[in-house]
Write a structure and sequence with these properties.
This protein is about 40% helix and about 25% strand. By secondary structure, it is of the alpha/beta class. The chain has a five-stranded mixed sheet with strand order 4-1-5-12-6, sandwiched between helices. A five-stranded mixed sheet has the order 9-8-10-7-11, with helices on one face. The chain has a two-stranded antiparallel ribbon with strand order 2-3. α1 (about 1-15) runs parallel beside α2 and α2 (about 45-60) packs across α8. It is elongated, with a radius of gyration of 20 Å.
């Protein structure tokens, strides 16, 4: 997959060297391994590479900004020509965005430190309501907890889930509620592999993350973005089919 994306970037950069309109601002959050700031300061990650491949293919000039999620959404919503990724496509959000391109799938669950003597308990959503839970602000996961009767006094909302790892280690929160891939990546970065355990997965929050455009985005911009996204999706599908045939 990564080699295909690099190929797309190379082809597009050769054929599309001049921007056709003003710069497009693209907003996202720190969410490894999908998007993160690399050692050189460049925003990297699998989702970022897909977004870059799309943008150079459209011949649009662009700039990616990595901000805390609630600020990223505020900046995006203030500009009809802006884009945002990786945003979960949900029924509540469906009509408020133009969903341009799927990037990755997301699984969400509750994590707990295994050195806590209660970690082996069979937890349920109702039983976890009695504990303190760390969750990202302005996220569907927070809305989910509130809609299922979690009291605000039991929720620690954070602008960055990176903070939640430290709070979990210090015992300031009992559970961390977040995306499986992100929590496991954060655990690896903190050296806590094996110390945190997924004790309850929430299938209702399983979602696909997208690159999305503003609901009032210019139609010409949307047409070009949608066309490029279709081309990339077709190439991804062809690559996946080739891989399956190769290993059969």
């Amino acid at each position: 997959m990564k080699s295909l994306i690099w190929a797309l970037l190379g082809i597009a950069s050769i054929s599309n060297s001049v921007s056709a309109q003003g710069k497009i601002d693209i907003y996202t959050e720190h969410f490894p391994p999908y998007q993160y700031q690399g050692n050189g300061g460049e925003i990297d990650g699998h989702a970022t590479m897909m977004v870059r491949a799309l943008m150079v293919r459209t011949n649009f000039d662009y700039q990616i900004y990595m901000l805390p999620w609630h600020r990223a959404k505020q900046q995006f919503e203030a500009s009809p020509s802006a884009l945002i990724y990786s945003i979960a496509r949900t029924a509540k959000r469906e009509r408020h965005y133009h969903w341009l391109m799927p990037l990755c799938d997301l699984k969400v669950g509750f994590y707990k430190r295994v050195d806590n003597e209660q970690w082996h308990t069979q937890f349920s959503l109702d039983s976890i309501k009695n504990y303190v839970v760390g969750v990202g602000v302005a996220q569907p996961s927070l809305q989910y907890l509130e809609s299922h009767g979690f009291k605000k006094s039991r929720l620690v909302t954070l602008s960055s889930l990176n903070q939640a790892g430290g709070l979990l280690e210090k015992g300031r929160i009992d559970f961390l509620f977040g995306a499986q891939s992100f929590v496991e990546q954060m655990s690896e970065a903190m050296g806590t592999q094996g110390k945190w355990k997924l004790v309850l997965e929430v299938p209702e929050l399983t979602a696909r993350l997208y690159l999305a455009a503003h609901v009032d985005a210019p139609s010409k911009m949307l047409t070009r973005l949608a066309s490029a996204a279709t081309e990339i999706n077709q190439l991804n599908t062809a690559s996946a089919c080739h891989s399956k045939m190769h290993f059969q």
